[in-house]
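Consider the following assembly input.
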Amino acid sequence: MKAILLHGPGDVRMEEVPDPRVEQPTDAVVRVVLSCVCGSDLHPYHRRMNPDAPPRPIGHEFLGVVEDVGADVRRFRRGDLVVAADTYCDGTCDFCRAGLHTSCRNGGYWAVKGVGGGQAEAVRVPQADGTLVKLPVPEDSPLLPSLLALADVYPTGYHGALRAGVTAGSTVTVIGDGAVGLFAVAAAKRMGAERIILMGRHKSRTDLGREFGATDVVAERGPEGIAKVRELTDGSPYVIEAVGFVEAYEQALGVVRDGGTISRIGVPQYVDGPVGMPLYRRNVTLTGGVAPVRAYMELLLPDVLSGAVPAGRVFDATVGLAGVADGYRAMDRRESLKVLIRP
Amino acid sequence: MKAILLHGPGDVRMEEVPDPRVEQPTDAVVRVVLSCVCGSDLHPYHRRMNPDAPPRPIGHEFLGVVEDVGADVRRFRRGDLVVAADTYCDGTCDFCRAGLHTSCRNGGYWAVKGVGGGQAEAVRVPQADGTLVKLPVPEDSPLLPSLLALADVYPTGYHGALRAGVTAGSTVTVIGDGAVGLFAVAAAKRMGAERIILMGRHKSRTDLGREFGATDVVAERGPEGIAKVRELTDGSPYVIEAVGFVEAYEQALGVVRDGGTISRIGVPQYVDGPVGMPLYRRNVTLTGGVAPVRAYMELLLPDVLSGAVPAGRVFDATVGLAGVADGYRAMDRRESLKVLIRP
């Protein structure tokens, strides 16, 4: 089959790889109908790789049709249309039962340790019963792009707002106008936030952010952006950081109100950062983390089916597998918000 | 009057300073009956000072008798026995009403900006109505040392457990066997924690910790200590860090369970530290901060009056003002847990 492989910084290629097959009795094989490029895929896309390392698969968002299942798979069968969570998980361990599927004792990430990526014609899905969610639409439904948002970006935005502890009537600041930031806006609105300030400087994205529920947009960054938010709010009790660079975290520290919460859903591109007195003296809570997407998929499915959240609107370009390299380039240059892949 | 002044690293002296007096209509002047040395006083005691800076007062825990009040003080009068919170605060601003008295819009810290320290014969108390709590005992009550714990260490331990979100039946790990750590143990017990692991290596302190409610003691530190706690708990859902050094924070990262909470009440002696992936990948929440002591004083007063928490037990030495330098040395060498001062 064809799959996308990452060869090095800025170098993704469509190549022929062996077809995936059931290896464990808990596996399924899914033929990919839709996949996409995530903002977080741009991080490895930029990273220098060990030159001796072989090219690696990539992608963690996909939906498709079950082609084969192992002997222990109970919930799915050949022909089911399914969407996968952004990490695989058994759904039964203590962490999964606690809603922390990303810490599953039998779980893991796509595209590493012998598991393929979602940017491919097909994927072996470990722990299929825990990882997949059946979709109640046919394979040719126009809702499919919106449903693909359940694989990562909508639940991740939701995780950000949930962990922040957003309450009805409150003020929330979302840092970052990528897809995850926009879904954080949608999630904050879902939780009843009254004022939602979106910090982002790409007008087409922040315009879409207003459709998702943002009431204010602040285009400035750094000290200017902080001053602007502080004019609007006197400090924001809930801040969702949806970027991942240390500058965005520092911006969150600048806009958060004393006693407030910063919830991070952007993948941190740093290990060390301000964590001592800057949080302590002001009783700021730092929370969030890699979203246990699987915990929220059924909860958010009705929003997508009803159109309450126009999830598919984040896709502004579509490519085949042969066009994925162009898709990465377009997202990297911020010419495209999120690129849909029809393998 | 006599007061303690900090001249430089390891150098505290009793000196003659001007008597405090009412300067603002919201001030009171309190004659100090009992004061003490805090573990956090050891941080400035160690710190290199600007050699041109004048000696500075020190101390933020005291109880005593109101000697004078300004025209706007409504809740107190001459002769009242009172205990002060570890920061002063108006009690009426939006932050105070939200229980975050340490961020009070008219508040501040003792021993800076023209306000004296608690290690003195008397103190000018700004915002007296917001800062002081009346004690329902006479000046010669044997409960006075226990009541002095309300000025900082018991409410600070309580803040740690409250922010951690300790629930009934849960497992809590407390890092640090200083007074604040021991009161964090007491607070966790008050909240119904079933298993309370105290990490500390001073046997007399951890023995007292068992009296306060610890069910297990781990004397090892670093990787060994982490391994020991993980043997006992498979990761602790609630961790209270009551030391303030970055090594203690790293220890907290090591013992906390994925999805768990680290609540810091030790004053961080660092700005930068591990804050990116180490928290994010495991969905660990980092919370706590400088305790809004004033928010909890009335709540915890009955525990002290009834003896349910033997708060005064943390004091294992008593000095006059002339002996304070010896008291600092004893605490610095860990020969004393907490030194009481009778000016």
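Chain B touches chain A through 36 residues (CB under 8 Å). Ask yourself how this observation constrains the way the partners meet.
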